[in-house]
């Protein structure tokens, strides 16, 4: 299971510290292993009881099946979640993070991730105030997790300093 | 009977701040076409150059994603609700 190794007890980011302390990285790893070699996705919800993971179905394969020219990738290299379900959850609970796994590659924020996280016209965040967590899964095991946050200066999601952890 | 269209926060600047708009139409395409006519600046945010829904926008009729129905030809019934919601996706 995901037992992150770090050099200090806390990172430079309080949200990431709460994520690590909550244990949800293990839940995401378990989801990623179960859905391997597809990318897993979902959201983290934070309330008075702490942070919990809410897994979503990765709909990418269904979209690829009905329209492979438009949705060229499969779930092996892409994720696509039910945004109506997300909106319903956001109307009632505090969604702080959207997460997904990268399969057999590192936990970087890819060009495809950037393109999906900002509006195409103005590069404003699609979901303001929500960070993105990427977790890498190699051979059904988590290797690293990184948190990304929108920068109004660069108009891109940037790695939050001090939030990387490795299993 | 008009159909209610829910407008996402990010697009309300193109609908004079309206959170929802009521329009008539037999299909999703007809209703969204009416929406485009009422708010011309919104059209470019909804439709691609081929006239389809842009990749970064999802449209739902009640609980159903129109990509898994008949896309813009999806028929509408009385009291249906259309939701326009930004897509959440990545690689």
What's the end-to-end separation of chain A, in Å? 8 Å
Give the overall shape of chain B. globular
Radius of gyration of chain B (CA) equals 12 Å
Structural class of chain A: alpha+beta
Average pLDDT level of chain B: 93
Number of domains of chain B: 1
Q: Do you know the CATH architecture of chain A?
A: 3-Layer(aba) Sandwich
Please, what is the CATH homologous superfamily of chain B?
Answer: Beta-grasp domain
Q: Which percent range describes the beta-strand content of chain B?
A: 25-35%
Mean pLDDT of chain A, to the nearest integer, reads: 92
Notes on the structure:
The complex is a heterodimer of chains A (167) and B (91). In chain A, strands 1, 2, 4, 5, 6, 7 and 8 form a seven-stranded mixed sheet that branches. Chain A is globular. With 167 residues, chain A is α+β, with helices and mostly antiparallel strands. The longest helix of chain A has 12 residues. Chain A has one domain: Cytidine Deaminase, domain 2. The mean pLDDT of chain A is 92. The termini of chain A are close together. With 91 residues, chain B is an alpha+beta fold. Chain B has a single domain, classed as Ubiquitin-like (UB roll) (Roll), CATH 3.10.20. Chains A and B meet through helix 3, strand 3, helix 4 and helix 5 of A and strand 5 and strand 6 of B. Strand 3 of chain A pairs antiparallel with strand 6 of chain B.
Short description:
Chain A is built from five helices and eight strands. Chain A has helices spanning 14-22, 24-35, 60-66, 83-92, 111-117, and strands at residues 41-47, 50-56, 79-81, 95-103, 131-138, 141-151, 156-159, 165-166.
């Amino acid at each position: 299971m995901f037992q992150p190794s770090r050099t200090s007890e806390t990172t430079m980011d309080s949200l990431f510290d709460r994520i690590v302390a909550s244990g949800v990285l293990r839940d995401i790893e378990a989801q990623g292993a179960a859905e391997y070699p597809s990318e897993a996705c979902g959201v983290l919800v934070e309330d008075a009881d702490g942070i919990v993971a809410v897994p979503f179905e990765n709909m990418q394969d269904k979209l690829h099946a009905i329209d492979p020219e438009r949705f060229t990738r499969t779930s092996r290299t892409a994720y696509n979640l039910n945004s109506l379900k997300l909106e319903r959850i956001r109307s009632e609970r505090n969604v702080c993070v959207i997460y997904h796994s990268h399969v057999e590659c590192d936990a970087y924020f890819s060009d495809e991730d950037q393109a999906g996280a900002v509006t195409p016209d103005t590069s404003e965040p699609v979901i303001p105030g929500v960070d993105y967590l990427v977790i890498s899964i190699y051979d059904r095991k988590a290797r690293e997790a990184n948190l990304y946050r929108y920068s109004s200066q660069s108009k891109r999601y940037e790695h939050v300093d001090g939030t990387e952890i490795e299993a | 009977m008009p159909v209610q269209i829910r407008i996402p926060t990010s697009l309300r600047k193109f609908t004079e701040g309206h959170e929802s708009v009521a329009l008539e139409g037999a299909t999703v395409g007809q209703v969204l076409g009416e929406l485009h006519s009422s708010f011309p600046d919104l059209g470019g945010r909804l439709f691609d150059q081929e006239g389809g829904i842009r990749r970064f926008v999802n449209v739902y009729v009640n609980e159903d994603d129109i990509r898994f129905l008949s896309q813009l030809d999806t028929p509408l019934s009385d009291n249906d609700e259309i939701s326009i919601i930004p897509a959440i996706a990545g690689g």
